[in-house]
Amino acid sequence: MSDLSLTQAMSTLRAVRRLRPDPIPEEVLERVLQAAAWAPTGGNAQPWRIVLVRDADAKARLGTLYAAQWTEFAKGYEARFEALPEEDVARERRTLDAGNYLAEHLHEAPVIAVFCFNPKMMAITDIKQPRVSVVGGGSVYPAVQNLLLAARAEGLGCVLTTLLCQVEPEVREILAIPEPWGTAAAIPLGYPIGTGHGPIRRRAVGSLVFEDTFGNKRGSP
Ligand SMILES: Cc1cc2nc3c(=O)[nH]c(=O)nc-3n(C[C@H](O)[C@H](O)[C@H](O)COP(=O)(O)O)c2cc1C
């Protein structure tokens, strides 16, 4: 593990979509997986599992499925460019290029970590709300984030992807995932081709956090 501070890791954990096929040493992978296992979950149930996909045939099949989903997604992504200022278009096009690259090369990542979850093991406290339920994800994505941060600290490139969730039955068949397990994310892991992780662009805290009531701006810190 590198001696990167947590702040450095969090503030440079950008999506890395260009990965080298070089293998990841087992001890490095073990540390990354341990970080995932440290994550909190509702009732400490740990209702998630990871399928580490390293088999070439399985990766190729996932890659084909992912590419088809990406192609559809990318059409909508590109359609948004027309409404953007020119300087933003250049940046978004770089992201699109990186996404295209990943879609063509997903199978080359030495490892694809597929996060599965079991809804029967979860206390989903918002399930009766008349809106989409998100609490169940709270027992999966902290583990995903721990894995991403640990990967970043190890110098591994990675990106949280969810497009394969749209073809979950096919993924379930490829990876022999039994009912009632579902899939929450597929994370290609590998050493980056370029600089990898780096500066990120996010909204200012002031526009994301309110004081006492929703929408009420905080005073300057
Ligand atoms: C819930 C979620 C789903 C995502 N799904 C995908 C995906 O399927 N494919 C992909 O290339 N990136 C995916 N991403 C990565 C985001 O596009 C990326 O984190 C975001 O655009 C910010 O990019 P940056 O971290 O490089 O600044 C996903 C991220 C999240 C949090």
The CATH homologous superfamily is called NADH Oxidase
Radius of gyration, CA atoms, in whole angstroms: 19 Å
Q: Helix count?
A: 6
What is the second-level CATH architecture?
Answer: 3-Layer(aba) Sandwich
How does the major sheet shape up? 4 strands, antiparallel
Question: Remind me, CATH topology?
Answer: NADH Oxidase
Q: Residue-averaged pLDDT, rounded?
A: 96
Within the largest sheet, what's the order of strands?
A: 1-2-4-3
Distance between the termini: 34 Å
Attached small molecules? flavin mononucleotide
Runs with pLDDT <50, length 5+? none
Indicate the CATH class: Alpha Beta
Order of helices and strands: HHEHHEHEHE
Estimate the helix proportion, in percent. 25-40%
Folded structure, characterized:
With 221 residues, the protein is of the alpha+beta class. It has a single domain, classed as 3-Layer(aba) Sandwich (NADH Oxidase), CATH 3.40.109.10. It is 38% helix and 11% strand. The chain contains six helices and four strands, in the order H-H-E-H-H-E-H-E-H-E. The longest helix has 24 residues. It is globular, with a radius of gyration of 19 Å. The structure holds flavin mononucleotide. The site of flavin mononucleotide has 12 residues, from helix 4.
